[in-house]
Amino acid sequence: MIYRSSTAVWELVRAEIMSFVDRWHTPGHADRAVRFMITTGRPEFAPLVWPLASSGNSQIQLPTLRSATLFRPSVLGPDLQKKVAALPEDPREHLLALIASESGVDGMELATNLALADQSPKIQAEVIQYLQCRSADRHVARLLKGALDETWALVAKRGYSEEIHNPEVATRLQAERDKLVRESTDPLQKIGMLVEQAPTYAGRDSAIADAIADPAFPVKDQRGGSSLYLAYQRAPAAVLQGLKKRLEQGLDLPFPADD
Fold first, then answer.
1. I want to staple 41 with a disulfide (CB 3.0 to 4.6 A). Which of 66, 74, 119, 198 is the partner?
2. How many angstroms separate the CA atoms of 53 and 28, rounded?
3. Continuous segment of H or E residues that includes residue 100
4. pTM of this structure
5. For residue 103, what is the DSSP state?
6. What is the pLDDT of residues 28-54, one digit of tens each?
7. Pick from 130, 134, 135: which is nearest to 155 by CA?
8. Rg of the chain over CA atoms, in angstroms?
9. What is the 3-state secondary structure (H, E, C) of 16-27?
């Protein structure tokens, strides 16, 4: 009711509510009073909520940002861009990503604006991932168009090109991914990127087979077995061809090859 009421109504109850929260809340803890404050969206609670939402301790920060059914960024108070910019990278990343994922449209818009102003490719890519999970195509496209080149490479590594509806953005992401596949010297990384491609992707199966047949493929590493299993679910013929090539070269077979 506080969130949806007018300023005039808030002024009538403000003193009593602020006193109530002061008695209820234990400073430094993401308790039920924090959920209450976030739900109101009132910026007057920023001195209590901001230290928790920006904490370098993820055991405090994450429960705070996820405590309410919907996170209302207005509770963090004014001058948010300056306050966010002053944070170290890790809490900044968690804050922006969770604003993008736990808020309404206002939060997605805010997270997009803050990420555009951020100089960390890692943070920009993380915000894009959360926005993409919410099918926020317009925000993803706007953020990518203004993102750093390094951000494009990070996002391309995770896929998404087929899920994005903006043709310009999807085309560049696919080009970035093609470049990563060509330049990758790590067989596991290459297989991981290739199996995300459609069966119609040019040269996909032959490239998977070559990566499996690479002497650098970690046959005795659990990661190698997991990679082989995933590839077999998506491209069984390519996996069999890769194993055959290993036999022809006299190389060891990965431990789950008999399956």
1. 74
2. 10
3. helix 89-102
4. 0.80
5. B
6. 999 999 999 999 999 999 999 999 999
7. 130
8. 24
9. HHHHHHHHHCCC
